[in-house]
Amino acid sequence: MRRIVDGLVALLLAVVMTGCSVLGPRHELTFEVSGSAPVLRKLTVDLPGKQAADATTQRRVQVPWRTTETTGFGFARLVATADEGRLTCRILDGDTVVATGRSDPDGRVEYRVNVQDG
Q1: Residues 76-109: tens digit of each pLDDT
Q2: Would you state the pLDDT for residue 17?
Q3: 30 CB-contact burial (10 Å; exposed 0-12 / middle 13-18 / buried 19+)
Q4: Which of 38, 101, 105, 108 is the most exposed, having the fewest neighbouring CB atoms within 10 Å of its CB?
Q5: Closest CA relative to residue 50, chosen from 29, 33, 80, 81
Q6: Nearby residues of 100 by Cβ (< 8 Å), 6 or more positions away
Q7: By the 8 A CB rule, do 15 and 77 touch?
Q8: What single DSSP character describes residue 2?
């Protein structure tokens, strides 16, 4: 019986520490990249509850680009880099814009947002 209790405690701690939303509301996050750049050299998206090593990275991505993911609470990050042109990026939580902005002079934009259960 002690092993079962220890296992359940470990599972509960993992859920809380990683932001997994088994116990709470889900968030529909939309990541968008647009602008005058025709192609992104590199695009990385980190979703809440994932480790940095689990980030999705793509290369040579056509602009405009958009994806929607259903996640739990925690930190989300979008990093986009273009060789030429300017970028505009947005992160939405449902219909609410939680981050928006433009690339720096080197063609890079990075946003990190904290998605909270409300």
Answers
A1: 999 999 999 999 999 999 999 999 989 998 899 9
A2: 47
A3: middle
A4: 105
A5: 29
A6: 88, 89, 90, 91
A7: no
A8: H
Domain boundaries, the chain: 2-115
Q: What angle do CA 62, 44, 87 make, to 5 degrees?
A: 50
Mean pLDDT, the chain, whole residue set: 81
Prediction pTM value: 0.74
Task: Compute CA distances 47 → 19, 20, 29, whole Å.
Answer: 10, 10, 9
Instruction: Write out the two tokens for 36.
Output: 């005058």
Burial of 41 (0-12, 13-18, 19+ CB in 10 A): middle
Residue type, 111: Y
Q: What is the pLDDT of residue 53?
A: 61
